[in-house]
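Appendix C: a fully annotated inverse folding record. The material below is reproduced so that readers can follow the format used throughout the book. The structure is listed first as tokens, followed by the designed sequence.
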């Protein structure tokens, strides 16, 4: 997706008042959002790029971005950039869940997964249907023949999503779906491509098979323990230590 403002015919000059410059910044960024140039979840250009394209001072630009953030149009994360919000900010200024997830670090994501997934696996062991278990086997089989890391990651993600869905808890499924959006971010995929070796893929496949076996055996404790061990191994390969 093109990161350029595009719709700005001329830089915003200092001949107009600062408040008018801020308003123009807001209008131009909102126009890109409304026109679909920057869809929900899209990362905005860096402050430096916006500063150069709009011809404004950094502090003025930041005031414009703050205005958009307060209005719930964008969400900003220190060190990670600004993103188009998926939904307007709710009353009270609380940041939407998906916006929080999009700005989360791999470490934060893995910490949450280690809390949610073992518990969900315990539920899935007693609630998964035959169709759920069959779909898990399909995911494992497709991952086994994946030609590259992105394809492997796709089927890996679908397997974990299926396990979560098999817990038959709608709120849990919604929370995990939001967390799973991180897999689609470029930063996550780059990290995976650096760390998911053939050896680790084979280990993950073996672990996945054991988890699904435990679910098939309707053993909540075993399924929960196995998925926790698997996630610990994934966290180590991604982050070390």
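Designed amino acids, in order:
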């Amino acid at each position: 997706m093109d990161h350029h403002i595009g719709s700005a015919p001329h830089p915003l000059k200092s001949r107009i008042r600062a408040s008018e410059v801020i308003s123009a910044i807001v209008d131009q960024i909102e126009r890109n959002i409304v026109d679909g140039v920057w869809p929900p979840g899209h990362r905005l250009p860096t402050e430096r790029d916006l500063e150069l394209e709009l011809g404004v001072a950094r502090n003025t630009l930041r005031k414009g971005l703050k205005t958009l953030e307060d209005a719930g149009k964008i969400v900003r994360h220190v060190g990670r950039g600004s993103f188009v919000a998926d939904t307007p900010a709710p009353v009270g200024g609380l940041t939407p869940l998906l916006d929080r997830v999009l700005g989360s670090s791999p470490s934060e994501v893995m910490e949450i997964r280690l809390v949610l997934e073992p518990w969900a696996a315990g539920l899935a062991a007693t609630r998964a249907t035959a169709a759920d278990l069959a779909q898990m086997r399909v995911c494992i089989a497709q991952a086994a023949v994946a030609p590259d890391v992105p394809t492997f990651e796709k089927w890996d993600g679908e397997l974990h999503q299926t396990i979560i869905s098999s817990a038959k808890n709608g709120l849990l499924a919604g929370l995990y779906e939001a967390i799973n959006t991180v897999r689609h971010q470029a930063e996550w995929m780059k990290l995976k491509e650096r760390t998911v070796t053939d050896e680790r893929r084979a280990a993950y496949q073996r672990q996945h098979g054991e988890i699904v076996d435990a679910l098939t055996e309707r053993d909540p404790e075993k399924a929960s323990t196995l998925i926790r061990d698997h996630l610990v191994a994934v966290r180590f390969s991604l982050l070390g230590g």
